[in-house]
Amino acid sequence: MTIIVLAAYIAAQILADVLSLRIVLLAGMSIDAGTLIYPFTFTLRDLAHKAVGLRGARVLIITAAVINLVMAGLFWLVSILPADSAVGPQSEFGIVLSPVWRIVFASIIAEVVSELTDTEVYRWWVARVRHYQWGRVLVSNAVSVPLDSALFCALAFYGTMPASVVWSIFISNVAVKSAVTMMSLPGIYIVKEGKDE
């Protein structure tokens, strides 16, 4: 089960970063499309922390950030390489996947800061309270979700779009991530407790 959790965390991080390139309307509010999958990373990170400990959770967070940066670099490289003329211009790839570096860096910075913060709050709960595993998820996500959304919105969108849209993205991100947190609370019970370090 631990391998599945770790793989799901990395996959959700990658998918969220690709999807964040598009702003969509959801229930009448602006939201970056990465928010459709990214909220699951907070609970997956909690599951990883429970299974592999503090050091393992930190390594997982940094690994995901490096993979996302490499992915963006590869998308950029492929988008500037000349297309094979026998196949056609293939301009769609660059239009869709060529990275917007401001969003890439905003996403990675927000992910690392919020997920490491989530890790420390989770660790605090385990050390101080010890019981109520669902509380670990609820409390750590209550801190990291708004932190992540604030950092991402400020770094990715501030000054590039109207403030009302940026606020709408922030509010909708927090709302969706909070709803996913509530739905995923029971998931903390699917992995066994590992050794915390």
Describe this structure in words.
- The chain has one domain (about 1-20, about 30-190).
- α1 packs across α2 (about 40-80) and α2 (about 40-80) crosses α6.
- The protein is mostly helical and about 200 residues long.
- It has helices at about 1-20, 40-80, 90-95, 100-130, 135-155, 165-185; strands at about 25, 30.
- The chain is built from six helices and two strands; from the N terminus they run αββααααα.
Element layout with pairings:
Elements: H1 2-19, E1 23-26, E2 29-32, H2 39-80, H3 91-97, H4 101-128, H5 133-157, H6 163-184
Antiparallel strand pairs: 1-2
Overview features:
197 residues, single chain, two-stranded antiparallel ribbon, 6 helices, mainly alpha
Give me the oligomer status: single chain
Q: What is the molecular shape?
A: globular
Compute the number of strand runs.
2
Largest sheet: 2 strands, antiparallel
Strand order across the biggest sheet? 1-2
Please count the helical segments. Answer: 6
Q: Any low-confidence stretches, pLDDT <50, length ≥5?
A: none
Q: What is the mean predicted local confidence, pLDDT? A: 88
Q: Roughly how much helix do the residues carry, as a percent range?
A: over 70%
- Pattern of helices and strands: HEEHHHHH
Q: Give the helix/strand class.
A: mainly alpha
Number of domains: 1
What is the alpha-carbon Rg in Å?
18 Å
Spatial separation of the terminal alpha carbons: 20 Å
Tell me the strand percentage band. Answer: under 5%
